[in-house]
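Data card: per-record layout.
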Amino acid sequence: MPQETCFPLDAGERFDPKRLSEKGGKASAAPWDDFPAVPSGKGPVKDAGLYIHVPFCLKKCPYCNFYSVKDLDRIPAYLKSLHLELAGIAPRWSDLFFDSVYFGGGTPSLLTPGEVEGVLDAILKHFRCRQDLEVTLEANPATVDANRLKAYRSAGINRLNIGIQSFSAAHLAFLGRVHTPTEAGAALEDAGRAGFEKIGIDLIYGLPGQTQRQWRKDLERATAHGPAHLSCYLLSFEPQTPLEARRRAGEIAPMPPGRQAGLFLDTAGYLEDRGYTHYEVSNFARKQEDAPGIHRSRHNQKYWNFSPYAGAGPAAHSFRENRRWWNINSLEAYLQAAAPGRPPMAGIEVLSTRQQQMEAVYLGLRRREGLDVKALERRFGLSFYAHTLETVRALKQEGWVSFTEKGFALTRRGMLFLDAVAGALIGCLP
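The structure for this 430-residue chain is written out next.
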Protein backbone atom coordinates (compact mmCIF):
# COMPACT_ATOMS: atom_id res chain seq x y z
CA MET A 1 0.00 0.00 0.00
CA PRO A 2 1.34 3.47 -0.83
CA GLN A 3 1.68 5.64 2.25
CA GLU A 4 3.03 8.94 0.96
CA THR A 5 0.74 11.84 0.18
CA CYS A 6 0.74 12.20 -3.59
CA PHE A 7 -1.37 15.20 -4.44
CA PRO A 8 -2.74 15.05 -8.00
CA LEU A 9 -0.92 16.82 -10.79
CA ASP A 10 -3.26 19.07 -12.70
CA ALA A 11 -3.16 18.87 -16.47
CA GLY A 12 -5.54 21.76 -16.87
CA GLU A 13 -8.34 22.29 -19.37
CA ARG A 14 -5.97 21.43 -22.19
CA PHE A 15 -4.71 18.00 -21.17
CA ASP A 16 -1.04 17.40 -21.93
CA PRO A 17 -0.73 13.71 -22.90
CA LYS A 18 3.07 13.82 -22.66
CA ARG A 19 2.73 13.77 -18.87
CA LEU A 20 1.68 10.12 -19.10
CA SER A 21 4.43 8.89 -21.40
CA GLU A 22 6.71 6.05 -20.38
CA LYS A 23 9.40 4.12 -22.19
CA GLY A 24 8.02 1.42 -24.40
CA GLY A 25 6.08 3.43 -26.95
CA LYS A 26 7.21 3.59 -30.54
CA ALA A 27 7.94 7.09 -31.79
CA SER A 28 8.93 8.25 -35.23
CA ALA A 29 9.21 11.42 -37.27
CA ALA A 30 5.73 12.04 -38.61
CA PRO A 31 5.05 8.90 -40.69
CA TRP A 32 1.71 10.31 -41.85
CA ASP A 33 1.32 7.88 -44.73
CA ASP A 34 1.54 5.00 -42.28
CA PHE A 35 -1.39 6.28 -40.23
CA PRO A 36 -4.64 4.36 -40.82
CA ALA A 37 -7.50 6.33 -42.33
CA VAL A 38 -10.12 4.25 -40.53
CA PRO A 39 -10.17 2.57 -37.10
CA SER A 40 -9.55 -1.12 -36.57
CA GLY A 41 -13.06 -1.68 -35.28
CA LYS A 42 -12.13 -2.51 -31.68
CA GLY A 43 -14.71 -1.17 -29.25
CA PRO A 44 -17.64 1.20 -29.82
CA VAL A 45 -17.20 4.16 -32.14
CA LYS A 46 -17.19 7.45 -30.20
CA ASP A 47 -17.79 10.95 -31.46
CA ALA A 48 -14.58 12.92 -31.85
CA GLY A 49 -13.50 16.33 -30.67
CA LEU A 50 -11.52 19.02 -32.50
CA TYR A 51 -9.01 21.21 -30.68
CA ILE A 52 -7.82 24.45 -32.29
CA HIS A 53 -4.65 25.89 -30.75
CA VAL A 54 -4.49 29.69 -31.02
CA PRO A 55 -0.85 30.49 -30.13
CA PHE A 56 -1.12 34.21 -29.34
CA CYS A 57 -0.99 36.10 -26.04
CA LEU A 58 -0.71 39.72 -25.00
CA LYS A 59 1.76 38.59 -22.35
CA LYS A 60 3.18 35.21 -21.38
CA CYS A 61 2.06 34.16 -17.88
CA PRO A 62 5.05 33.00 -15.79
CA TYR A 63 3.41 29.70 -14.78
CA CYS A 64 2.26 28.64 -18.27
CA ASN A 65 4.12 26.15 -20.46
CA PHE A 66 1.61 26.02 -23.31
CA TYR A 67 3.04 27.25 -26.59
CA SER A 68 2.33 30.91 -27.38
CA VAL A 69 3.88 34.01 -28.95
CA LYS A 70 3.19 37.75 -28.63
CA ASP A 71 3.53 38.67 -32.32
CA LEU A 72 -0.13 39.45 -33.10
CA ASP A 73 0.81 40.65 -36.58
CA ARG A 74 1.21 36.98 -37.51
CA ILE A 75 -2.45 36.17 -36.92
CA PRO A 76 -3.47 36.49 -40.61
CA ALA A 77 -0.66 34.15 -41.71
CA TYR A 78 -1.58 31.73 -38.92
CA LEU A 79 -5.22 31.66 -40.02
CA LYS A 80 -4.22 30.98 -43.61
CA SER A 81 -2.11 28.01 -42.53
CA LEU A 82 -4.81 26.80 -40.14
CA HIS A 83 -7.37 26.70 -42.95
CA LEU A 84 -4.93 24.69 -45.08
CA GLU A 85 -4.35 22.26 -42.23
CA LEU A 86 -8.05 21.76 -41.52
CA ALA A 87 -8.74 20.99 -45.16
CA GLY A 88 -5.75 18.64 -45.28
CA ILE A 89 -6.48 16.55 -42.18
CA ALA A 90 -10.26 16.27 -42.61
CA PRO A 91 -10.17 13.24 -44.99
CA ARG A 92 -8.38 11.22 -42.30
CA TRP A 93 -11.37 11.78 -39.98
CA SER A 94 -14.15 11.39 -42.53
CA ASP A 95 -15.54 8.24 -40.90
CA LEU A 96 -16.27 9.99 -37.58
CA PHE A 97 -18.69 12.63 -36.37
CA PHE A 98 -17.47 15.54 -34.25
CA ASP A 99 -19.58 16.84 -31.38
CA SER A 100 -17.13 19.33 -29.82
CA VAL A 101 -14.79 22.07 -30.96
CA TYR A 102 -12.46 23.77 -28.48
CA PHE A 103 -10.53 26.98 -29.17
CA GLY A 104 -7.63 26.93 -26.70
CA GLY A 105 -4.37 28.76 -26.42
CA GLY A 106 -2.72 31.05 -25.93
CA THR A 107 -5.59 33.52 -25.89
CA PRO A 108 -8.21 32.60 -28.48
CA SER A 109 -10.20 35.75 -27.68
CA LEU A 110 -7.48 37.71 -29.48
CA LEU A 111 -9.08 36.44 -32.69
CA THR A 112 -11.90 38.67 -33.87
CA PRO A 113 -15.41 37.20 -33.92
CA GLY A 114 -15.23 37.27 -37.72
CA GLU A 115 -12.00 35.27 -37.71
CA VAL A 116 -13.49 32.72 -35.32
CA GLU A 117 -16.57 32.44 -37.51
CA GLY A 118 -14.34 31.84 -40.53
CA VAL A 119 -12.62 28.94 -38.79
CA LEU A 120 -15.96 27.48 -37.72
CA ASP A 121 -17.26 27.73 -41.29
CA ALA A 122 -14.20 25.78 -42.46
CA ILE A 123 -14.77 23.13 -39.80
CA LEU A 124 -18.40 22.70 -40.78
CA LYS A 125 -17.36 22.48 -44.42
CA HIS A 126 -14.65 19.87 -44.01
CA PHE A 127 -15.75 17.78 -40.98
CA ARG A 128 -18.91 15.83 -40.21
CA CYS A 129 -20.35 17.68 -37.21
CA ARG A 130 -23.33 16.93 -34.98
CA GLN A 131 -26.19 19.41 -34.92
CA ASP A 132 -25.69 19.93 -31.18
CA LEU A 133 -21.98 20.72 -31.65
CA GLU A 134 -20.50 22.24 -28.47
CA VAL A 135 -18.10 25.06 -29.40
CA THR A 136 -15.92 26.43 -26.60
CA LEU A 137 -13.80 29.56 -26.70
CA GLU A 138 -11.24 30.38 -24.02
CA ALA A 139 -11.29 34.08 -23.19
CA ASN A 140 -9.13 36.48 -21.20
CA PRO A 141 -11.17 39.19 -19.42
CA ALA A 142 -8.80 41.89 -20.71
CA THR A 143 -9.58 41.06 -24.34
CA VAL A 144 -13.40 41.05 -24.34
CA ASP A 145 -16.25 43.47 -23.83
CA ALA A 146 -20.03 43.27 -24.16
CA ASN A 147 -20.11 43.83 -27.91
CA ARG A 148 -17.29 41.39 -28.64
CA LEU A 149 -18.94 38.68 -26.56
CA LYS A 150 -22.26 39.17 -28.35
CA ALA A 151 -20.42 38.84 -31.66
CA TYR A 152 -18.74 35.60 -30.55
CA ARG A 153 -22.17 34.24 -29.66
CA SER A 154 -23.48 35.19 -33.10
CA ALA A 155 -20.41 33.62 -34.71
CA GLY A 156 -21.31 30.20 -33.29
CA ILE A 157 -19.57 30.01 -29.92
CA ASN A 158 -21.98 28.45 -27.41
CA ARG A 159 -19.66 27.77 -24.48
CA LEU A 160 -17.28 30.29 -22.95
CA ASN A 161 -14.35 29.45 -20.68
CA ILE A 162 -13.03 32.57 -18.95
CA GLY A 163 -9.53 32.54 -17.47
CA ILE A 164 -10.18 34.48 -14.28
CA GLN A 165 -7.55 32.63 -12.16
CA SER A 166 -8.18 34.93 -9.16
CA PHE A 167 -10.29 37.86 -8.02
CA SER A 168 -7.39 39.16 -5.92
CA ALA A 169 -5.31 41.98 -7.42
CA ALA A 170 -2.21 40.77 -5.55
CA HIS A 171 -2.61 37.20 -6.76
CA LEU A 172 -3.28 38.31 -10.33
CA ALA A 173 -0.04 40.30 -10.21
CA PHE A 174 1.87 37.27 -8.92
CA LEU A 175 0.41 35.15 -11.74
CA GLY A 176 1.33 37.79 -14.32
CA ARG A 177 -2.24 38.21 -15.53
CA VAL A 178 -3.09 41.27 -17.62
CA HIS A 179 -6.64 41.77 -16.31
CA THR A 180 -7.97 43.28 -13.08
CA PRO A 181 -10.58 41.91 -10.65
CA THR A 182 -13.01 44.53 -11.98
CA GLU A 183 -12.48 43.35 -15.55
CA ALA A 184 -12.98 39.75 -14.43
CA GLY A 185 -16.37 40.54 -12.92
CA ALA A 186 -17.38 42.63 -15.93
CA ALA A 187 -16.48 39.83 -18.36
CA LEU A 188 -18.69 37.38 -16.48
CA GLU A 189 -21.61 39.80 -16.36
CA ASP A 190 -21.22 40.70 -20.03
CA ALA A 191 -21.06 37.02 -21.01
CA GLY A 192 -24.37 36.36 -19.31
CA ARG A 193 -26.01 39.34 -20.98
CA ALA A 194 -24.61 38.19 -24.33
CA GLY A 195 -26.70 35.04 -24.05
CA PHE A 196 -24.10 32.49 -22.94
CA GLU A 197 -25.71 29.82 -20.76
CA LYS A 198 -22.59 27.68 -20.53
CA ILE A 199 -19.96 29.85 -18.85
CA GLY A 200 -16.90 28.28 -17.26
CA ILE A 201 -14.45 29.93 -14.86
CA ASP A 202 -10.81 28.91 -14.44
CA LEU A 203 -9.26 29.50 -11.01
CA ILE A 204 -5.78 28.75 -9.65
CA TYR A 205 -5.06 28.04 -5.97
CA GLY A 206 -2.14 26.91 -3.87
CA LEU A 207 -0.13 30.09 -4.45
CA PRO A 208 2.83 30.62 -2.08
CA GLY A 209 1.49 32.14 1.13
CA GLN A 210 -2.17 31.92 0.08
CA THR A 211 -4.51 31.42 3.03
CA GLN A 212 -7.67 29.37 3.18
CA ARG A 213 -9.65 32.57 3.73
CA GLN A 214 -8.19 34.17 0.60
CA TRP A 215 -9.02 31.13 -1.51
CA ARG A 216 -12.52 30.94 -0.06
CA LYS A 217 -13.09 34.55 -1.16
CA ASP A 218 -12.20 33.58 -4.73
CA LEU A 219 -14.69 30.71 -4.59
CA GLU A 220 -17.36 32.99 -3.16
CA ARG A 221 -16.83 35.60 -5.87
CA ALA A 222 -16.89 32.92 -8.57
CA THR A 223 -20.05 31.13 -7.41
CA ALA A 224 -21.85 34.47 -6.93
CA HIS A 225 -21.90 34.70 -10.74
CA GLY A 226 -23.56 31.27 -11.02
CA PRO A 227 -21.24 29.76 -13.65
CA ALA A 228 -22.16 26.45 -15.23
CA HIS A 229 -18.62 25.14 -14.79
CA LEU A 230 -15.60 25.71 -12.56
CA SER A 231 -12.06 24.45 -13.08
CA CYS A 232 -9.91 24.80 -9.97
CA TYR A 233 -6.26 24.06 -10.65
CA LEU A 234 -3.47 23.66 -8.16
CA LEU A 235 -0.58 25.94 -9.08
CA SER A 236 2.16 23.85 -10.67
CA PHE A 237 5.78 24.75 -11.32
CA GLU A 238 6.27 23.64 -14.90
CA PRO A 239 9.75 23.07 -16.39
CA GLN A 240 11.28 25.95 -18.34
CA THR A 241 8.86 28.56 -16.99
CA PRO A 242 9.80 31.78 -15.16
CA LEU A 243 7.90 30.57 -12.11
CA GLU A 244 9.98 27.40 -11.93
CA ALA A 245 13.15 29.47 -12.35
CA ARG A 246 12.12 31.58 -9.36
CA ARG A 247 11.52 28.43 -7.34
CA ARG A 248 14.94 27.04 -8.21
CA ALA A 249 16.54 30.36 -7.27
CA GLY A 250 14.91 30.20 -3.85
CA GLU A 251 12.81 33.32 -4.43
CA ILE A 252 9.54 31.48 -3.79
CA ALA A 253 8.58 28.17 -2.25
CA PRO A 254 5.63 25.97 -3.25
CA MET A 255 2.83 25.59 -0.76
CA PRO A 256 3.46 22.53 1.49
CA PRO A 257 1.53 19.41 0.37
CA GLY A 258 -0.50 19.30 3.57
CA ARG A 259 -1.87 22.78 3.00
CA GLN A 260 -2.50 22.01 -0.67
CA ALA A 261 -4.52 18.98 0.39
CA GLY A 262 -6.51 21.07 2.85
CA LEU A 263 -7.44 23.59 0.16
CA PHE A 264 -8.36 20.78 -2.24
CA LEU A 265 -10.74 19.18 0.26
CA ASP A 266 -12.21 22.57 1.19
CA THR A 267 -12.79 23.36 -2.50
CA ALA A 268 -14.61 20.11 -3.16
CA GLY A 269 -16.80 20.44 -0.08
CA TYR A 270 -17.64 24.09 -0.67
CA LEU A 271 -18.64 23.65 -4.31
CA GLU A 272 -20.58 20.42 -3.85
CA ASP A 273 -22.54 22.06 -1.02
CA ARG A 274 -23.51 24.78 -3.51
CA GLY A 275 -24.86 22.53 -6.22
CA TYR A 276 -21.78 21.55 -8.21
CA THR A 277 -20.79 18.00 -9.11
CA HIS A 278 -17.10 17.21 -8.60
CA TYR A 279 -16.89 15.17 -11.80
CA GLU A 280 -13.10 15.19 -12.29
CA VAL A 281 -10.19 15.95 -9.97
CA SER A 282 -10.07 19.64 -10.96
CA ASN A 283 -13.50 20.17 -12.53
CA PHE A 284 -16.95 20.98 -11.21
CA ALA A 285 -20.21 21.24 -13.14
CA ARG A 286 -23.44 22.81 -11.95
CA LYS A 287 -26.14 20.21 -11.34
CA GLN A 288 -29.26 20.30 -13.46
CA GLU A 289 -31.80 17.63 -12.58
CA ASP A 290 -33.58 17.54 -15.94
CA ALA A 291 -30.29 17.23 -17.86
CA PRO A 292 -27.59 15.49 -15.78
CA GLY A 293 -24.07 16.19 -16.99
CA ILE A 294 -25.10 18.91 -19.45
CA HIS A 295 -22.71 21.44 -17.89
CA ARG A 296 -19.66 19.20 -17.98
CA SER A 297 -17.03 20.06 -20.56
CA ARG A 298 -17.94 17.76 -23.43
CA HIS A 299 -14.58 18.28 -25.11
CA ASN A 300 -12.32 17.73 -22.12
CA GLN A 301 -14.10 14.54 -21.18
CA LYS A 302 -12.71 13.07 -24.41
CA TYR A 303 -9.20 13.33 -22.96
CA TRP A 304 -10.26 11.26 -19.97
CA ASN A 305 -12.33 8.53 -21.64
CA PHE A 306 -10.13 7.72 -24.66
CA SER A 307 -12.38 9.31 -27.25
CA PRO A 308 -10.61 10.33 -30.47
CA TYR A 309 -9.63 13.96 -30.87
CA ALA A 310 -7.98 15.91 -33.66
CA GLY A 311 -5.71 18.89 -33.04
CA ALA A 312 -4.91 21.77 -35.38
CA GLY A 313 -2.50 24.66 -34.96
CA PRO A 314 1.08 24.83 -33.64
CA ALA A 315 1.82 22.29 -30.85
CA ALA A 316 -1.68 20.76 -31.02
CA HIS A 317 -2.00 17.05 -30.13
CA SER A 318 -4.25 14.42 -31.70
CA PHE A 319 -5.24 10.94 -30.53
CA ARG A 320 -6.92 7.92 -32.05
CA GLU A 321 -6.95 4.30 -30.88
CA ASN A 322 -3.37 3.60 -29.79
CA ARG A 323 -1.68 6.50 -31.59
CA ARG A 324 -0.90 10.02 -30.53
CA TRP A 325 0.70 12.61 -32.74
CA TRP A 326 1.58 16.26 -32.41
CA ASN A 327 2.24 19.33 -34.52
CA ILE A 328 5.35 21.48 -34.81
CA ASN A 329 5.64 23.72 -31.75
CA SER A 330 6.93 26.77 -33.60
CA LEU A 331 4.71 29.31 -35.33
CA GLU A 332 7.25 30.11 -38.01
CA ALA A 333 7.92 26.44 -38.73
CA TYR A 334 4.16 25.81 -38.76
CA LEU A 335 3.65 28.57 -41.32
CA GLN A 336 6.39 27.18 -43.53
CA ALA A 337 5.16 23.60 -43.25
CA ALA A 338 1.52 24.27 -43.99
CA ALA A 339 0.59 23.12 -47.48
CA PRO A 340 -2.34 21.27 -49.05
CA GLY A 341 -2.15 17.59 -48.11
CA ARG A 342 0.89 18.07 -45.89
CA PRO A 343 -0.02 18.12 -42.18
CA PRO A 344 2.51 20.05 -40.05
CA MET A 345 3.31 17.08 -37.83
CA ALA A 346 6.39 16.83 -35.64
CA GLY A 347 6.02 13.19 -34.62
CA ILE A 348 3.78 10.27 -33.81
CA GLU A 349 3.81 7.74 -30.99
CA VAL A 350 2.33 4.25 -31.01
CA LEU A 351 1.35 3.49 -27.43
CA SER A 352 2.40 0.14 -26.01
CA THR A 353 -0.16 -2.00 -24.21
CA ARG A 354 1.48 -1.03 -20.94
CA GLN A 355 1.15 2.67 -21.72
CA GLN A 356 -2.50 2.22 -22.64
CA GLN A 357 -3.16 0.39 -19.37
CA MET A 358 -1.42 3.14 -17.42
CA GLU A 359 -3.44 5.89 -19.10
CA ALA A 360 -6.71 3.98 -18.74
CA VAL A 361 -6.20 3.53 -14.99
CA TYR A 362 -4.84 7.01 -14.30
CA LEU A 363 -7.39 8.91 -16.38
CA GLY A 364 -10.24 6.70 -15.20
CA LEU A 365 -9.41 7.42 -11.58
CA ARG A 366 -9.45 11.18 -12.26
CA ARG A 367 -13.17 10.96 -13.06
CA ARG A 368 -16.04 10.80 -10.59
CA GLU A 369 -17.32 7.61 -12.24
CA GLY A 370 -13.93 5.97 -11.72
CA LEU A 371 -12.83 2.78 -13.44
CA ASP A 372 -15.22 0.73 -15.55
CA VAL A 373 -13.64 -2.63 -14.76
CA LYS A 374 -15.54 -4.69 -17.33
CA ALA A 375 -14.68 -2.23 -20.10
CA LEU A 376 -11.05 -2.38 -19.01
CA GLU A 377 -11.11 -6.18 -19.12
CA ARG A 378 -12.66 -6.24 -22.58
CA ARG A 379 -10.14 -3.78 -23.89
CA PHE A 380 -7.03 -5.52 -22.60
CA GLY A 381 -8.23 -9.12 -22.42
CA LEU A 382 -7.41 -9.61 -18.75
CA SER A 383 -9.13 -10.35 -15.45
CA PHE A 384 -8.58 -7.09 -13.58
CA TYR A 385 -9.60 -8.21 -10.09
CA ALA A 386 -7.61 -11.43 -10.40
CA HIS A 387 -4.50 -9.25 -10.25
CA THR A 388 -5.65 -6.29 -8.15
CA LEU A 389 -8.36 -7.47 -5.73
CA GLU A 390 -6.11 -7.52 -2.67
CA THR A 391 -4.87 -4.01 -3.43
CA VAL A 392 -8.38 -2.70 -4.15
CA ARG A 393 -9.65 -4.13 -0.86
CA ALA A 394 -6.80 -2.47 1.00
CA LEU A 395 -7.59 0.84 -0.72
CA LYS A 396 -11.25 0.44 0.26
CA GLN A 397 -10.31 -0.24 3.85
CA GLU A 398 -8.11 2.87 3.82
CA GLY A 399 -11.12 4.90 2.66
CA TRP A 400 -9.52 5.90 -0.64
CA VAL A 401 -11.91 4.10 -3.02
CA SER A 402 -15.57 3.18 -3.08
CA PHE A 403 -17.24 0.54 -5.22
CA THR A 404 -19.62 1.51 -8.03
CA GLU A 405 -21.96 -0.45 -10.30
CA LYS A 406 -19.24 -0.73 -12.94
CA GLY A 407 -16.11 -0.87 -10.78
CA PHE A 408 -14.70 1.57 -8.26
CA ALA A 409 -13.84 5.24 -7.92
CA LEU A 410 -11.64 7.39 -5.75
CA THR A 411 -13.26 9.04 -2.76
CA ARG A 412 -12.66 12.74 -2.17
CA ARG A 413 -9.82 11.87 0.19
CA GLY A 414 -8.58 9.21 -2.21
CA MET A 415 -8.09 11.87 -4.87
CA LEU A 416 -5.26 13.22 -2.73
CA PHE A 417 -3.42 9.97 -3.44
CA LEU A 418 -4.25 9.69 -7.13
CA ASP A 419 -0.70 9.11 -8.37
CA ALA A 420 0.09 6.58 -5.66
CA VAL A 421 -3.17 4.63 -6.10
CA ALA A 422 -2.79 4.50 -9.88
CA GLY A 423 0.82 3.36 -9.52
CA ALA A 424 -0.15 0.60 -7.09
CA LEU A 425 -2.87 -0.73 -9.40
CA ILE A 426 -0.76 -0.55 -12.55
CA GLY A 427 2.02 -2.38 -10.72
CA CYS A 428 -0.33 -5.32 -10.16
CA LEU A 429 -1.21 -5.77 -13.82
CA PRO A 430 0.67 -8.28 -15.97
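Known properties of this structure: Residues 1-32, 34-41 have pLDDT under 50 and may be disordered. The radius of gyration is 21 Å.

See the next section for split statistics.
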